[in-house]
Amino acid sequence: xxxxxxxxxxxxxxxxxxxxxxxxxxxxxxxxxxRDRTWLFTWPEYxxxxxxxxxxxxxxxRRIEGEPIAYILSRREFWGLSLECxxxxxxxxxxxxxxxERALSLxxxxxxxxxxxxxxxxxxxxxxxxxxxxxxxxxxxxxxSAFELAQSNARNLNILSVDxxxxxxxxxxxxxxxxxxxxxxxxxxxxxxxxxxxxxxRFEPRTALTAGRDGMQDIKLIAEFAIDYLVDGGYxxxxxxxxxxxxxxxxxxxxxxxxxNGLKDLSGLDRAVLARAPKD
Length: 280
Known about the structure:
Elements: H1 4-14, H2 21-33, H3 37-42, H4 50-64, H5 69-73, E1 75-78, E2 81-84, H6 97-105, E3 113-117, H7 123-131, E4 136-141, H8 144-157, E5 163-166, E6 179-184, H9 217-226, E7 230-239, H10 245-254, E8 258-264, E9 270-276
């Protein structure tokens, strides 16, 4: 019978389309065995049972077909939080941690009111709530299944301070409610973009990815209406595609936002824009 190490090597060789083949195989084995990856390194000579091998083979076959590892394991880590994931919403990505990092660096009141639009798994809202328990955080999500998933993540992490609202963008927010920061990772992919046929994106819901012909449909809506929900000088922080910085910045300036600045991710790509509402 082959050892755990032998099976991992063999499976890695079959994952020809993955740029993290060894890691994928290790994560799937850890999931099957109910262990962490450290255990795999400690016991490479372990000989799995036939039942364990059968389960591993089922999951590795899904990965060979290109299904995202986060969907196979129903879990993804974001900002140190282990989040449930499923095909109802986007997979939280490391690049989006930039928004959390920048939000935490802003000069906001101790009891700041924060709005997370299109929360998906709840990743941004939950990360901010973890780091700033005194902040008053509201998260909005349109998809019913994603809305339920975000609340499930909150319960599992015992982060119970976020106010979850279901609806489209600002629809469920009271007209007289103002926020110190509105933060969002909206759909921004062009509806006919070739990237929709590549990698993990193939399996993610189109409604959470695409926003019209130029990918700007939802960003334009947010830029137009967010200013009515921000305190004087309040912040708007929007994630966007690597080639959309100028379009997003122009849209914000058109709606009278001030101090419009782009943010780059760890790969040096334009990833987000931060702007401020005018002070009357």
